[in-house]
Specification:
The chain folds into 2 domains: 5-179, Rossmann fold; 197-314, 2-Layer Sandwich (GMP Synthetase, Chain A, domain 3), CATH 3.30.300.20. It is 38% helix and 22% strand. It has 11 helices and 9 strands. A 6-stranded mixed sheet has the order 2-3-1-4-5-6, sandwiched between helices. The protein has a 3-stranded mixed sheet with strand order 7-8-9. β2 and β3 form a beta hairpin. α7 packs antiparallel against α10 (262-279). It binds guanosine-5'-triphosphate and magnesium ion. Magnesium ion (MG) is lined by residues 19-20, 32, 40-41. Residues 19-20, 32, 40-41 line the site of magnesium ion.
Length: 315
Amino acid sequence: MSGFKCGYAALIGRPNAGKSTLMNQLLRNKLAITSAKPQTTRNRIAGIHSDDAMQVILVDTPGIHNAWTELNKQMVKAARSAISDVDVVLWLGDLTQLAARAAKDEPILDAEDEQLADLLAQCARPVIFVANKIDVVPTPMILPVIEAVRKRISCAATVPISALTGDGAKPLLSEIQRLLPEHPPLFPPETWTQVSERFLASEIVREKIFHLTEEEVPYATAVDIVKFDETERETNSIVKIYADIVVERPSQKGILIGKGGEMLKRIGTLARKELQEVLGCRVYLELFVKIEKNWTRSTGGLKKVGFEADDGSSG
Ligand SMILES: Nc1nc2c(ncn2[C@@H]2O[C@H](COP(=O)(O)OP(=O)(O)OP(=O)(O)O)[C@@H](O)[C@H]2O)c(=O)[nH]1
Ligand SMILES: [Mg+2]
């Protein structure tokens, strides 16, 4: 095992940069939920990539942004704390945003990027700048972005990539391997995550809500798995899942249930289909919409809906 590398790498960036998409791409497995809406990820979620030369524990984090509600503050806290817990930081930049600013002759890094750069410059960890979404941004527009980042903080490497197509994933893994410490593997090579099926189930339901509802509704929603019944998993190949979808207001409850219960049915059908694939058995899924007034705004409210602020893996 001499020369084998093993350690932790955090995926850090603004909301919507593509952190969770990259995580899934590097794992070749869907672990983290993704959506076109910002602030999809709420917890730190770890996935493990192993090959002949290294094992890297990738830590997906919520997007770093100026947070107002208690929920958002907890999300940003989870991301910030990840930075100091890892061996390498992958700073994901969204080229569609960064290159658009360059094209308009605006500063490529805006105020929030500057804050993030400060945070990363202070962290005393090697930073790889990952310029994401090269599948939609013309190549000549990538270089100025990388130059602007390099001028701002010293990076151990810069890697253009498409998290969506996987283009650039190999060079990125090589850079990660170069920067990790020599260490024997911490997990058996076939392990790709340690999050519980219960946590995955709540995230899958939440993803469907992100995809099917608009405006404030997905942001006011938490999914709490009330019961994860595996008693018939071996004998009858079925898992029964009972989940509360928690919202803040009656109007949001109305939207989630929909006319004649149609929205809730759509959410349930899509989630159940995916859960059957993930769990490898039949799934009975019962969803119940419940109101917890202003749960996103208070620590007590967050606890009440069973929200684990810093670590999804225990949820
Ligand atoms: N075209 C293109 N789209 C991408 C790429 N990577 C991510 N996306 C899209 O960008 C959106 C956001 O992706 P996510 O992976 O959810 O982003 P995130 O950084 O995890 O976002 P938060 O969890 O909200 O912080 C989704 O619609 C993705 O499909 C890419 O390489 N190319
Ligand atoms: Mg995410």
